[in-house]
Known about the structure:
Elements: E1 12-13, E2 17-22, E3 28-37, E4 41-46, E5 56-61, E6 64-76, E7 79-87
Antiparallel strand pairs: 1-3, 2-3, 2-5, 3-4, 4-7, 5-6, 6-7
Amino acid sequence: MTGPEKRREERREASGRVQIRFSDPAPKQIEGRLVDVSASGFRMAHDFASLGAGQLVEFSHIEAHGHARVMWNRIIENRVETGFLVIGR
């Protein structure tokens, strides 16, 4: 059972590759799959479980590129989903 919708912005499905880069705590680049996008963020699926809420990253996908903050992670079986808030748009 799901609760009431708390999203402030409408999401729409999206697809394609996403690249995330960060240097804290150590330089790393990960790739994943774009799941959905909104006016101020996006969600991706990947296999890197160590992204932390609040972490700043650079990103690039078919619809946008720039900087984002990790807002949440969800681990489902052997896959990770992460929600990002785009900053500096």
